[in-house]
Amino acid sequence: MDDFPKLGGKRRKSRPEAKNFTLRLTDDEKRLLIERAGDVPLGIYIRSLILGADVRQKRRSAPLKDDTALARVLAVLGQSRLSSNLNQLAKAVHIGALPVTPETESEIVAACAAVSAMRQDLLAALGLPEGGRA
Questions:
Q1: pLDDT digits over 109-125, tens only?
Q2: Strand, helix or coil at 95?
Q3: Which of 52, 88, 93, 121 could form a disulfide with 73 if both were Cys (CB 3.0 to 4.6 A apart)?
Q4: What are the CB-based long-range contacts (under 8 Å, 24+) for 93-99?
């Protein structure tokens, strides 16, 4: 079978597969480890203790700066029909059936304000400046 050409182009370098390891701890031992680990994930902390300081964690995107702002945006999205309403407006515009009345205009302005407020909260939660880039 080794005579067949490899399909799919370049082959990615494979990393060694991580294997699970179980460690039994009492509640007090686990609580102590969690306390000592602080913001570091427990598995990373334990590996660093066992294998030395050279253990590295995968690099993550920027951490959240404001959990409250993010929670506010997610709550609004979960409770509103904003996405559905905007989708209906877009469909009506595409088929030419959107009557432009003062009520329609005020609803569109309100939807835009809500989207703008969510954008502000998301930027704040991610610690990004007004322009959206760090």
A1: 887 888 888 778 777 77
A2: helix
A3: 121
A4: none
